[in-house]
Amino acid sequence: MSDLKALCDRIRQTSFQIHTFLGHGHLEKVYENALVHRLRKVGLKVEQQQPIKVFDEDGTLIGDYLADLVVEGILIVELKAAKSLAPEHEAQVLGYLKASRFEHGLMINFGSPKFEIRKFIWNAN
What percent of the chain has pLDDT over 90? Predict the structure, then answer.
């Protein structure tokens, strides 16, 4: 699926269906496994706990972190099972995008009674 908007819509719809079915209160890993399973069922390429290289401003490799999900090689998906999203969660995703040089990310919170999803774009230009 090459259209980023359609990809984000598919992930949003699938995540909402999972939230509706499972409700809130499970561990983050349960939601991660459910989302991976359902996205792969519809033919999307999903990497789970994918190592992402982190670069300094001059391009020097300085380490890596594990992204919860990387979908279709272009979208980082960070999952939470928290009562609510906090500014530090947003800072985490933006930091991941900046340091890894990915441009697009989603943050999905399954832990709240109300489904929460946010899209992030990092443009280094």
Answer: 79
pLDDT in tens, 64-80: 889 999 999 999 999 99
**What is the spatial distance between Cα 102 and Cα 94, in angstroms, rounded to a whole number?**
10
CA angle at 70 for the pair 14 and 24, rounded to the nearest 5°: 40
Rounded to two decimals, what is the model's pTM?
0.90
Q: For position 1, what pLDDT does the model report?
A: 47
CATH for the 4-121 domain, from 3.40.50.300, 3.40.50.12240, 3.30.310.50, 3.90.320.10: 3.90.320.10
- Closest to 120 measured CA to CA, from 82, 50, 67, 81: 67
Contact predicate 100/53, CB 8 Å: yes
The per-residue DSSP string of 6-30 comes to: HHHHHHHHHHHHHHHHH-S-S-HHH
